[in-house]
Amino acid sequence: MQYASILKVLGLIIGVLAIFLLIPTIYAFALGTRDFHGFLYAFILSAIFGGLLSFIPKSKKPLKFRDSYALVTFVWLSAAFFGCLPYFFSNSIPGFTNSFFESISGFTTTGSSVVSNIEGLAPPTLLWRSLTQWIGGMGIIVFALAIIPYLNIGGMGIFQSEVPGPTAEKLTPRIQNTAKVLWIVYFLITCVLIIALWLGGMTPFEAINHAFTAMSTGGFSTKNTSIAGFNSPVIEWILIIFMIIAGINFALHYRFLFKGFHPKTYYEDSELRFYLLIIILCITSITITILIQNGGLPGQVVRDASFTVASIITTTGYGTADYELWPIYGQFILLFVMVIGGSAGSTSGGIKSVRLLLMLKYIYTEILKLLHPNLIRTVKLRNTVVDRNILANILGFIFIYLMVMVISILLVSFECKDMMTAIGSVVASLSNIGPGFGTVGPTENYAHLGIFTKWILSLDMVMGRLEILTILILFLPSTWKK
Amino acid sequence: MKIVIAGAGEVGYHLIENLCKENLDIFVIDTNAAVLNKLKSQYNINTDHGNIIDSKYIKKSHLKNTDLFLAITNSDETNMIACKSAKEAGAKKTIARIRQVNLDSTKNHFSLESLGIDWVINPVALVADELFKLVLTPNIVDNHEFSNGTVNITGYKMTDHSTMVGHSIKDIEKKAYKLFFNIGIVQRKDMTIIPKKDEVIQLGDVVYFIYQKSDYPNLRRTIGYPTSHSKSKHVFINGGGNMGLQLANRLEKAHQEVKVIEKRLARSYDIAEKLQKSLVLNFDGTDLKQLSAEGIDNADYFISVTDNEQVNITSCLIANEQGVQRTISLIKQPELIPIIDQNTPITLGISPRILTARYLLRYIQDTHIFSYFSIINSQIEILEMHLEESSTCLNIPIKNLEIPENIIISVINRNEEFIIPDGNSELSVGDIILVIAHRLDRPKAIHFFHPDSK
């Protein structure tokens, strides 16, 4: 392990975080709200810490793979730590466990909250919650890569471990430019959404907060009742569209926006077609089930079903309708899309639709081989062959994902009273969604859970965001040997 | 007309054999002295020994005043450079044989003109194209487009499904909604007939129709063949080389059910990458057990295109034995084709050399002939000519013209109007005419319609 290099990079990134902390600090100072001192202490602490670490002399040795995995994990844990300090110092959220839970739920874009009265929080705290999600959405490392030239060390390794999906795509020859380009696209779409929400009837403050949390598929809101609090079909439809956009691979958005606005970029992508197909199928079947079993106005039901499916599959976690009142069939569809998640290279969580698509293709090939013993066939995606290593990797990933899920449910069930809560909270945390089932459903929050459960769920959130293997590698003894 | 041919390989040899029958100055360049000597003693041509792209051997004077330069050596690169140097030395038109490089002009980063190449010929693609047409339109024997594609000649084989069999041409023309086609030539066994109106079509005849392209569906209806191929065909391709791959690629795009059999494992993976829906099977194409396990008895076509002639013939025979109605085998030696066609149950032998030579011959023609088409295994051809003011046959009823014997004006294309002439029709300036004539009568035909020609 190259501790010196890792700590130096860590220091630089904490420094970047300090600059982000400055935004709500100034805002709190201007408004004169009671959480000002919390932000000030957090800013000073992270600035000092980051500053000290970044004075470590530059190492000439390049980072190895295991170093970059460790670095990525440390970056996320320390971001969550420094990010929770404002809540803790200002006592906006009582206790360290709760503050850390809220902070990591923000950075990992999960969006599960321990705050019961969100509207009671001061505006700077609300802004910071949204901001943590916005940073975590495209990724702290990707952001750091884009702005700190010194990070030109880990190369593809650290980039790969943060961008979700089986393989990260390099959009430009240099990784720094790729990171820059991704953040520019992310920033531009966020700006469009801010304007759209403002025109749709939100106040500018609400529009900024919700644009941050929608584009990052995070799901924090400024209202106690989430999006239902606005009671506005226009806002709901705007969010449905932009949540789905946020669940699409940002490499596609980049090609569309910067390479000549060809609609072909989108409709020729097989992962995107598969992702949209899942969304349409789920919305249709849920709508039909509700209309048959529960009844209601078709317009309202279609909107509720669309909003909930978009919110869950992109792992955003906004709520309008209480889906726990839906027929069980509809709830199971939601549980299913919770695990799938959005596209690779997007800001969403879950297994990712491309992995599911490749596995389906792989299974089809295997069945075909039973019929034709001499068949030679390769799995293809976008007309290029998918390497067998990647397929094996995906199989392993899905297995570990389910294993982590099962073990977490076991651990959580120590303190949980009912099964749906145990399953729902773990799935919602591991896939970075937010609302689950049972007592952590769309109308409730996570405040009542035990301390142990909260730490397990926090770990699940980081594992889900960094796609598990990055973290699991640190549990191997050989990673730590010289 | 002066023609320089670089490369006396497989294709070159067959081409020279055909060209010698014409009144042409042929000059052959090759690195193999023995082949050149053989050619020189056999045919009335001149040769030079040396590498075509080595200026030490090839003098510029050889390339001067060349009407057509053909680069058909085995190397793509040599052919490209040869065409470039020939063009700079003053060759009027150049043709390069290119096999490996994908020369789809819409996707290339360079233009063929910049390489000094006027036309490209790719024998592998030619054969794949031919096989593709055979599978999709099984009864079409041959097809050619005249007048930039507005007028077609198509040869149909008459099968049990055709309603024309047993009827005279007069009857057939009466039954059609209007006279939109001309039956120019009928091929019966070894004979080629220029039919009179009372000729009766027999089973197994190949009938050549000349018609406007827009009338294609009407023509198929008149013959009694369905216009659309609703049912997809089950095609086995033995051999996953370039030819097999190209054929499979085109067939699967046309929604046919394709199975490609390839013996080499590494190559199987290669083609599996390049094909989308086709099944790639890794076993020996002569393995009877495997073939029947894959359902060869349900196949509509068995096409063998491996590099090995014996394997092709053997696997086709096996397929025939298993009940496949149509088997096609790739045969390299042109002499073997009639033997295969007549003495074995194999439906068809196909030779890249014959196809390539026939294709190249289309470019070697008199300046007064815009395009021409020759019937397979026959001396009859159809010439496309454009009438100029100097012609002496204008504005006179055809029955009063003294057209030489055995030369027939088949159709007239006048400003996109398609006319089937009778005795009272008159020719006018700008008409495009299609003339049926014997190969030996070609000079007479040219002289008649273009009296100022030499």
Number of domains of chain B: 4
Tally the helices of chain A: 21
What is the mean predicted local confidence, pLDDT of chain B?
84
Distance between the termini of chain A: 6 Å
Helix content of chain A: 55-70%
Radius of gyration of chain B: 24 Å
Number of distinct beta strands of chain B: 22
What do these coordinates show?
The complex is a heterodimer of chains A (482) and B (454). Chain A is an all-alpha fold. Chain A has helices at residues 3-31, 36-53, 65-90, 96-107, 123-138, 140-147, 156-162, 175-199, 204-215, 233-246, 250-258, 264-267, 270-293, 298-313, 328-340, 353-371, 388-412, 419-430, 451-465, 469-472, 477-480; strands at 375-376, 380-381, 384-385. A two-stranded antiparallel sheet of chain A has the order 2-3. Chain A is globular. The model of chain A has no long low-confidence stretch (mean pLDDT 89). By secondary structure, chain B is α/β, with parallel strands linked by helices. Chain B folds into 4 domains: 2-121, NAD(P)-binding Rossmann-like Domain (Rossmann fold, 3-Layer(aba) Sandwich), CATH 3.40.50.720; 138-171 and 180-220, Alpha-Beta Plaits, CATH 3.30.70; 234-356, Rossmann fold (3-Layer(aba) Sandwich), CATH 3.40.50; 363-449, Alpha-Beta Plaits. Chain B contains 14 helices and 22 strands. Chain B has a 6-stranded parallel beta sheet, sandwiched between helices. Chain B has a 6-stranded parallel beta sheet with strand order 14-13-12-15-16-17, with helices on both faces. Chain A binds chain B through residues 368, 372-378, 380, 383, 385, and chain B through 262, 265, 268-269, 272-273, 276, 279-283, 290, 293-294.
Structure in a nutshell:
The complex is a heterodimer of chains A (482) and B (454). Chain A has helices spanning 3-31, 36-53, 65-90, 96-107, 123-138, 140-147, 156-162, 175-199, 204-215, 233-246, 250-258, 264-267, 270-293, 298-313, 328-340, 353-371, 388-412, 419-430, 451-465, 469-472, 477-480, and strands spanning 375-376, 380-381, 384-385.
